[in-house]
């Protein structure tokens, strides 16, 4: 019984850490995508002016 409870706690901690990693990955990739969009737009404006 104690082993099952400790396994459940370890599993819960693993799921929580995976969710944190997933959120961090979404933020990182989302931030990178936004930066890329801004860079592309700025580069497009510069080429239009020139």
What brief labels describe this structure?
single chain; 50 residues; 1 helix; rod-shaped; mainly alpha
Description:
The protein is mainly alpha-helical and 50 residues long. It contains one helix and no strands. The protein is rod-shaped, with a radius of gyration of 22 Å. The termini are far apart.
Largest sheet: none
β-strand percent reads under 5%
CA radius of gyration is: 22 Å
Q: If you average the pLDDT, what whole number results?
A: 86
Order of H and E elements: H
User: What low-confidence regions span 5 or more consecutive residues with pLDDT below 50?
Assistant: none
Please outline the helices and strands.
Elements (H helix, E strand, L loop, with lengths): L1 H48 L1
Outline:
The chain has 50 residues and is mostly helical.
